[in-house]
């Protein structure tokens, strides 16, 4: 974790490449992609960099994750990486 709130997960370095390969074969050329449970925000950042014609909407219910996602987004300055939203896929509402 760096002082600006960005958190880092070791798994991101290991699995981003394989995930990008799969996404490249299934994502449309343009559109909006909702990432559920974005965690640190590192995957959303990598996806936005790899697919600049798509918009990526990161989300997470955890306040620490939310802060990390926002910090990675601010540091990167990518127009296609939207501000995170609070979303809990396990919630009743």
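Q: What amino acid sequence fits the structure above?
A:
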């Amino acid at each position: 974790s760096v002082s600006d709130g960005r958190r880092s997960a070791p798994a991101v370095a290991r699995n981003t490449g394989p995930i990008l390969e799969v996404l490249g074969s299934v994502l449309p050329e343009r559109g909006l992609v909702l990432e559920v449970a974005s965690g640190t925000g590192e995957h959303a950042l990598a996806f936005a960099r790899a697919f600049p014609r798509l918009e990526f909407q990161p989300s997470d219910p955890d306040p620490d994750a939310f802060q990390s996602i926002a910090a990675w987004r601010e540091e990167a300055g990518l127009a296609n990486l939207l501000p995170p939203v609070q979303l809990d896929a396990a919630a009743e509402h």
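Q: And what stands out in the fold?
A: The longest strand covers residues 31-35.
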